[in-house]
Amino acid sequence: MSSMFQEILAFMLTTSGWVLVSSTLPTDYWKVSSLDGTVITTATYWSNLWKACVTDSTGISNCKDFSSLLALDGYIQACRGLMIAAVCLGFFGSIFALVGMKCTKIGGTDKNKARIACFAGVDFILSGLCSLSACSLYAHQITSEFFDPMFVAQKYELGAALFIGWAGSILCILGGSMLCFSIADSFTKSHSQANYIYKGAASHSHLSSYPRGQAKSVNQRPPPDYSSSSRIQHFDKNVYV
Fold first, then answer.
1. Beta bridge partners of 55
2. What CATH number did the domain enclosing 84 receive?
């Protein structure tokens, strides 16, 4: 029963993490223009994996989509691929987790369901690692440009989307690890049941190893003696009547 609760908790963690990772991909604020050293802010620049925008003081935003894939910077292409891979792995991991959980009626035997749940855990761990790598790579590019004294263009700071992606990645990794550890409990229980069956069979074979006539019951009564001497001894009071 504890392993079932562990799988349910792991499924909730991984599903929540996958939702956060999926919402990070189209989120706007991956990086936001820095206000360091500025007195009057007339516009805010922000960007994500798909477009770059500027918002003026009146709240009106003008955006420009990244038209060419090959003309993009290498880190943006890598982050796109890693985030899409994370979303796909999390989707397939959620399906395998539903099949492999003990509270569902599909998936076959307990051993097969444990293997499917472990495979789902590996999918979620890979999904979390992909998302974590994408967010960390993007953040590394932002910080390296910010602290570079030779970089004279617009400097940016970490946006809210990166923190959401990091949180979702950690949830996916934690839940996937719990799903992987659930297979150990299942195989431990099956091994203990097999040992119990083996000991029971061994004791049964030990009892049946006695030959006939030697295995006597403890409460077995001796057969009654119907000889003539016993009759005389039993009725000796009425002999002279």
1. 44, 61
2. 1.20.140.150
35 found inside a domain: no
Best CA proximity match to 10, nearest among 181, 183, 175: 175
Q: Is residue 146 part of a domain?
A: yes
Question: 111 and 76 in contact (C-beta within 8 Å)?
Answer: no
The CA distance from 26 to 83, in Å, is 10
pTM of the predicted structure, to 2 decimals: 0.73
Please tell me the total count of domains within the chain. 1
Q: Where are the alpha helices (DSSP H) in the chain?
A: 2-24, 74-100, 110-146, 160-207, 228-234
221 lies in a domain?
no
Which pLDDT belongs to residue 201?
44
In-domain check, residue 206: no
Instruction: For residue range 139-162, list pLDDT tens digits in order.
Output: 999 999 888 888 888 888 999 999
